[in-house]
From TrEMBL:
Quaternary context: Homodimer.
UniProt keyword Lyase, yes or no: yes
Binding site for substrate: 285, 321, 325, 353, 382
Pfam families in alphabetical order: Orn_Arg_deC_N
Protein name: Diaminopimelate decarboxylase
Gene: lysA_2
Domain Orn/DAP/Arg decarboxylase 2 N-terminal: from-to ranges: 36-288
Ligand binding (pyridoxal 5'-phosphate): 240, 282-285, 382
Metabolic or biological pathway, per its Swiss-Prot or TrEMBL entry: Amino-acid biosynthesis; L-lysine biosynthesis via DAP pathway; L-lysine from DL-2,6-diaminopimelate: step 1/1
Coiled-coil ranges (or none): none
Lineage: Bacteria, Bacillati, Actinomycetota, Actinomycetes, Kitasatosporales
Residues recorded as bearing N6-(pyridoxal phosphate)lysine in the entry: 59
EC number: 4.1.1.20
Organism annotation: Streptomyces rubradiris
Amino acid sequence: PASATESRPGDLAVGGVPLTELADRFGTPVYVLDEAEVRDRCRTYRNAFPDAEVLYAAKAFLCRAMARWMDEEGLGLDVCSAGELELAVTAGFPPERMVLHGNAKSPRDLETALRLGVGRVVIDSPSEIARLAAAVGPGGHQKVMVRVVPGIGAGGHEKIRTGTDDQKFGLSLTDGHAQHAIARILGRPQLELTGLHCHLGSQITSVKPYLAAVRRMVGLMARLREQHGLVLPELDLGGGHGIAYRPGEDALDLTSLARKVRRELAGSCAAAGLPVPRLVIEPGRAIAGPAGVAVYRVLSVKRSGGNVFVAVDGGMSDNPRPALYGVRYAPRLAGRHSTAERARVTVAGRHCEAGDILAADAELPADVRPGDLLAVPVAGAYHLSMASGYNLVGRPPVAAVRDGHARLLVRRESMADIRGRDVGL
Ligand code: LLP
């Protein structure tokens, strides 16, 4: 990962800018995004999947600059709310290269998508068919896909597994709900079904479940051709490509994924006598995650119950992932060279909750002290996009670094922002 390299001993830098400088200029906590790393990751995808449509899953992290980079790198966008859609459009992102997801799309989501001209809407429930058809109107036209639950369990944590029938997304293949919904869509002339979609889960590090998904989805495509004479031009396999959060952890091998999926798709389609559909993929984490670093300031260090608690000025309000999924991070001391031996410490957040622990088993120099900076690598995905207003600490800013220069992309949430929404007294 981009993440922090050492410019001088102990002085970590991202994109050629020392973290000390970023902390001085933007304050802490601050999220630092390495633009070159984001773009590199987009190019890695484009090169590995030259014939596929690559959609960046905006839920991982979105701001207008990010949307613009995706556009410039030739990616589309997976959005799942009117908010994500509108923000990207205000950055000049072409709506026709966006796909709208969601298991519970609000009237505003659908209205915004249709008004702005979103490329495809992914239908997730039977009731959505009639709602969408009505919103499109009798003379209108909207491309859609159907989210199919293929019955395959995969993903780094139970809360982010979406390929099995016991979770809330999509329409089951096993129970026939997907086939039923497709028949109903075909009865709506204003809805054009362009393909099938599935998303197995997130933080998947093996290629195998994707190959199983290809087989199941092609099986369904073959049945649709038999039953309805339908040949679908697209197959969207979703995202979920796993990354390493700590040194030594496994990441999904994209080259192997691309090669094996292409081979499986060609083989399964040939066996079924189907033309090979255009592949769509939706990586989020694997593009944004490793390109981001969170920088915190240590506020207190104390011993308690055999632990050393190193408490920083952020926590579960900017990174809920350790609390939600038990994810383990590897924070590093930044901005200072220490020759002290390494000690096992608990990096705690500042929130009023015992579960607000950022890293339960961090290895840091034993002389870590208040005023030090800590860098948490691999912080670009599902941190700020899941940030909350807990304890009214204000959400951190995002700075982009590139070629030794930094610029602010998203400013810190101020007391004026917080006070401004409070209109009740
Ligand atoms: N496509 C669909 C339809 C999705 O629901 C998701 C993620 C993605 C693509 C992108 O998945 P990725 O490539 O980023 O794994 N908050 C959790 C992750 C939730 C993922 C939700 N859907 C976390 O922090 O791990």
